[in-house]
Amino acid sequence: MRYLSDLIDGLAFTELQGSADVEITSIAFDSRQVIPGSMFVAVKGTQVDGHDYIGQAIKKGAIAVICEDLPAHTAAEVDFLMVADSAKALSLVAANFYGNPSAQLKLVGVTGTNGKTTIATLLYQLFRDLGYKAGLLSTVENQINGQVIPSTHTTPDPIELNRLLEEMVTQGCDYCFMEVSSHAVAQHRVANLHFSGGVFTNLTHDHLDYHKTFDSYLKAKKAFFDGLPKSAFALTNSDDKNGNIMLQNSQAHRKTYGLKSMADYKARILENQFGGLLLHIDNEEVWFKMVGTFNAYNLLAVYATAMLLEQDKAKTLTSLSKLTGAEGRFEYIVAPNKVIGIVDYAHTPDAVQNVLSTIHDIRKGNEKVITVIGCGGDRDKTKRPIMARVASEWSDKVILTSDNPRSEDPAQIIKDMIEGVDPAFKRHTVSIVDRREAIKTACMLANPGDIILVAGKGHEKYQESHGVKSHFDDMEELEEQFKLLV
Ligand SMILES: CC(=O)N[C@H]1[C@@H](OP(=O)(O)OP(=O)(O)OC[C@H]2O[C@@H](n3ccc(=O)[nH]c3=O)[C@H](O)[C@@H]2O)O[C@H](CO)[C@@H](O)[C@@H]1O[C@H](C)C(=O)N[C@@H](C)C(=O)N[C@H](CCC(=O)O)C(=O)O
Ligand SMILES: Nc1ncnc2c1ncn2[C@@H]1O[C@H](COP(=O)(O)OP(=O)(O)OP(=O)(O)O)[C@@H](O)[C@H]1O
Ligand SMILES: N[C@H](CCC[C@H](N)C(=O)O)C(=O)O
Ligand SMILES: [Mg+2]
């Protein structure tokens, strides 16, 4: 049983109506999740204001409410606490409710536009291989010691997050590796967690629908490092132009990694092919199964993190050389007639550019590159024309298609994409709204040796349109079509 007084330990509140000596059964920020004896935290959201649901929460049995503005009518039997920022308060009471599990783990957060899932997953796989019990919180899935728990967000909400961390502690985990999205930092989902380290990947264009400007997107990421304690390490990519800015105001122990500039942890690419990467890393030559320059950065970040967590160098490199990373990231198959299919989660301009330049670097001759790509609905519209431009410039043929249109008209999303395609490249760009048909057409157009990139959905197993998620799997589609390519 938790008492209200325990949950609000450390909370700066301006007013308390009622007694702190009551038992709380659960906490909820959604009135629909309230059960008798709950504490309800009213959060102002992007769609609605949680304060409008205080009445409903009380009807469902809430006995304590945290809010920024007191409602006109308060119930005498309910405790009310006023705070300046309910989202921040939520993360504190959630951590207190679950006994501050992050302090009992070595928790490492990974942030940046691209590479978070790859790095967090590699770290999780590496530490399990090194013999530790570990947890993972990622876009693809959450895991505790091999047990898979489906994930709905890149970074869970504070209640789910602390509940999962508590479960990791119960199961004896030593480490947890998690992705920290910019939405999570802005919404204080990770406030009040005790991090042992933070890793920065890179910062390029994404999520401007939510953050509005690149500068506020940058500040959201930077706030994560500003909040790290002195005892933590902060590891940044010194080749990224914002890499050093990220750590500017961090009191954590600062370290850098890079392929080009001066850095504490350095690597050089010796070979980059479909079979993998040969890296000169910290004075050793090692083959890895991961493909592409961007994965050289990811591998180096993982290696540096392992060193900062005081792991053995030889064991780390041996284990890392066997790993293949997260599902749907540069995964490839070869058809009987030698057409190559690649499924990749590239859904930002930079990621599309990286994955296509990698394909160009590693292809053997003049094989054609056919790209199937769409852009998400209800997401940053300004990235649409840029992604289409990059795809058209770096491919011999592009098929623009749908990728989770959500509430939007898929044909309109494709029109927004076409705006970015240079007239010179329009000849080799076609639009096919139905993603299954688009993939099928790419397979029909491909000759032996050609490379088909299906970008944007990676591990996703659905296509979301008008609130309905229907089963869809890019790799499954390619496999079906490839059977016919003999
Ligand atoms: C834009 C965004 O991030 N929205 C998140 C946010 O919701 P919101 O602020 O829009 O909430 P709202 O619907 O306005 O509601 C406000 C409050 O009223 C409450 N409410 C609402 C209705 C009701 O009947 N009763 C009630 O109490 C809600 O529970 C909420 O507390 O807070 C919710 C609870 O934590 C999240 O589920 C929701 O994620 C939505 C579903 C989402 O799509 N988020 C994506 C964009 C996201 O977070 N992505 C990032 C990473 C992307 C990446 O880089 O990969 C992620 O970490 O996953
Ligand atoms: N270090 C990197 N730099 C640039 N691009 C990368 C890097 N790592 C991966 N990518 C590209 O970005 C895509 C997404 O990678 P990943 O899922 O690891 O990123 P993420 O940061 O977790 O993305 P999300 O914000 O959606 O959770 C990959 O499929 C690949 O195309
Ligand atoms: N985490 C990202 C993933 C985008 C993946 C793409 N398939 C889409 O649906 O837009 C987002 O929610 O914006
Ligand atoms: Mg991710």
Automatic annotation (TrEMBL):
Main location: cytoplasm
Enzyme class (EC, first level): ligase
Reaction catalyzed: UDP-N-acetyl-alpha-D-muramoyl-L-alanyl-D-glutamate + meso-2,6-diaminopimelate + ATP = UDP-N-acetyl-alpha-D-muramoyl-L-alanyl-gamma-D-glutamyl-meso-2,6-diaminopimelate + ADP + phosphate + H(+)
UniProt xrefs under InterPro entries: Mur-like_cat_sf (IPR036565), Mur_ligase_C (IPR004101), Mur_ligase_C_dom_sf (IPR036615), Mur_ligase_cen (IPR013221), Mur_ligase_N (IPR000713), MurE/MurF_N (IPR035911), UDP-N-AcMur-Glu-dNH2Pim_ligase (IPR005761)
Biochemical pathway: Cell wall biogenesis; peptidoglycan biosynthesis
Binding of ATP, residues: G112, T113, N114, G115, K116, T117, T118
Residues in Mur ligase central domain copies: 110-305
Protein EC: 6.3.2.13
Binding site for meso-2,6-diaminopimelate: R379, D403, N404, P405, R406, G456, E460
Domain Mur ligase C-terminal: 328-458
Binding site for UDP-N-acetyl-alpha-D-muramoyl-L-alanyl-D-glutamate: S31, T154, T155, S181, Q187, R189
Names of the cofactor(s): Mg(2+)
All copies of domain Mur ligase N-terminal catalytic, residue ranges: 23-98
An annotated GO BP: cell wall organization
Function recorded in the entry: Catalyzes the addition of meso-diaminopimelic acid to the nucleotide precursor UDP-N-acetylmuramoyl-L-alanyl-D-glutamate (UMAG) in the biosynthesis of bacterial cell-wall peptidoglycan.
Family affiliation: Belongs to the MurCDEF family. MurE subfamily.
Name recorded for this polypeptide: UDP-N-acetylmuramoyl-L-alanyl-D-glutamate--2,6-diaminopimelate ligase
Organism of origin: Mucilaginibacter ginsenosidivorax
